[in-house]
Amino acid sequence: MSQNAQDFLAAIKNNYAEEASKYYLQDRSVIFAKDDQKRTALQIAAMNQYYDLVQYLIAIGVDLDEQDNMCFNPFLWGCIHNDLKLVKTMVEAGADLERLTRFGGNGLTPASEKGNVEVVEYLLTQTDINPNHTNYLGWTALIEAATLKGDDERQQKVVELLLTYGADPNMVDPYGKTPLTLATDKGHTNIAKIIALHGGI
């Protein structure tokens, strides 16, 4: 990596927008620079919530969807970390919603598992993301939301949203267990009731 590219990434990490712009104007190929974890400048800015820099980097053409060593990109990072502003920015910029996490989930999957209600609601109501996508473990967003986190109000809301906006209440895991069975087995009685009300068996 050239010195100019290194300096560009350093400016991004420190939120020095003017310096970053200077290095870009000297050598426009810096938009392809990545750090030792294969993070683009856009990913670095996104992780640090440097929203103005995110907008600038989108404008100059840094790849929206490039994924790092952990399969993070700005959209997936925002979904996982409940950063609705970042998620909206990336969706509006045209991010690929079919990019997957290292566990094979789309952005909705970890957002649902973590109870990120605002992100889940936005994705389900404002995008065409697939609510029935299964990850490498054979789990849907509904299964993760119903079983992995708990039975609190945020998880209940996520489950309600998923079922209201197209999640199949009876898509089974690799062992043939339905979301209702799995939630019941976990003792998540409130979530189990919601699934049952939406036709879960």
UniProtKB/TrEMBL annotation:
ANK repeats (start-end): 37-69, 137-174
SMART domains: ANK
Matching InterPro entries: Ankyrin_rpt, Ankyrin_rpt-contain_sf
SUPFAM superfamilies: Ankyrin repeat
Domain of life: Bacteria
Record's keyword terms, sorted: ANK repeat, Repeat
Pfam families: Ank_2
Name of the protein described by the UniProt record: Ankyrin repeat domain-containing protein
